[in-house]
Amino acid sequence: MSIKDSLLTVPQREEGGRTAYDRFDYQTAWGLSRLIDLHEEGKNYAVAFEFHDDIVSLDDADVPTSAIFYQVKTKASGNWSFAQITSRSTSKGIKKSSFAGKMFDNFVRFGAIVEKLVFVSNQPLPDVIVVHGEQGFSKAEKKKLAKFLTNLAAEVACFKDHEHTSLFFFVFSDLNLSNYENTVVGRIAAFLEQELGSHIPPKPFALALNDYCRRRSKSLADVNSFDQLKASKFVTRADMVKWLSQAQDQHERRPEWASVANELNLPFAEKTKIERAWREYEITLRSRPNAATIKFTERVRGIVDEAIDQADDLAALIDAVITKVRPIVNEWKAGTNDQFVKAAILYELKR
Fold first, then answer.
1. DSSP secondary structure code for residue 136 in this structure
2. What angle do CA 297, 301, 302 make, to 5 degrees?
3. Between vectors from CA 201 to CA 285 and to CA 235, what angle results, nearest 5°?
4. What is d(CA 191, CA 171) in angstroms, rounded to the nearest whole number?
5. CA distance 303 to 173
6. CA–CA separation, 104 and 109 (whole Å)
7. Degrees (nearest 5) of the Cα angle 82, 100, 97?
8. pLDDT per residue over 55-93, tens digit each?
9. Which stretch of DSSP H or E encloses residue 185?
10. Rounded to whole angstroms, how far apart are CA atoms 344 and 274?
């Protein structure tokens, strides 16, 4: 069975149900940092969030042949040990899977397509690595590794030392638990400067990426093809290129009131009030550079775009969409009047 077929048919152990908000969690921040690594390396990557494991990376977004499974765990203090990674808790008399057992379960279910099984943490595993970076479990001293091998073999009968130990790796992340948000935003700022220049503010783009990735961590909808699966659960190089282009457009493209004034066939007083609301709307947009604003503008633009073909002029377009756009605008900025709503419609139409 190909990797595409396997990803479509093998059921997940568990499904995440996180919702988007303007804050990073450690797992998403690390995944974003990994995305940037792959993008800078020129890879045609595809990275999934909470799909079979915390992070899954395919070697190619279009013709994948292998996958790396990452389990991301944090600790406030202290080191990791092989004993902790293979430790199994008990609930109602039943032993649960260890971290290592869950990692190896990906190999049990996916077989030869698994390139690596990687444990990621903000704290080191001294038996394997004490400096930031990646190292294989097999590099540990044999006596120290023996505890891991014995415990995992006892948990999973099909685990064989000589065949499977080489799959296990540890990543000692350079994202500190106390300031990882600032670190990843700084990383994204450097990435944006490299890709687009220093004029694009990094925080809105960082929050938008956070939101995009979190959406992909939600429960999987029914899909019938690998392309549908990729669009639902994975972030790809093509996605990143598109988002970079959108970030540049949204920052640089500021429509002028003159672009709609001559086409807007409304009474003078109404037109003047909408013009003032246009100025207020633009100022509000610039003062709220967050994921909620990005999502809001996308929703408004989507409604407007759907109605363009049915409208004869700008006034007709406003009438066609205002009832749908009004609650969205008031959710984003409470207490707005209809002139502000109309200004939002026109601004997003021309942006």
1. E
2. 115
3. 95
4. 22
5. 42
6. 9
7. 120
8. 999 999 999 999 999 999 999 999 999 999 999 988 888
9. helix 180-195
10. 9
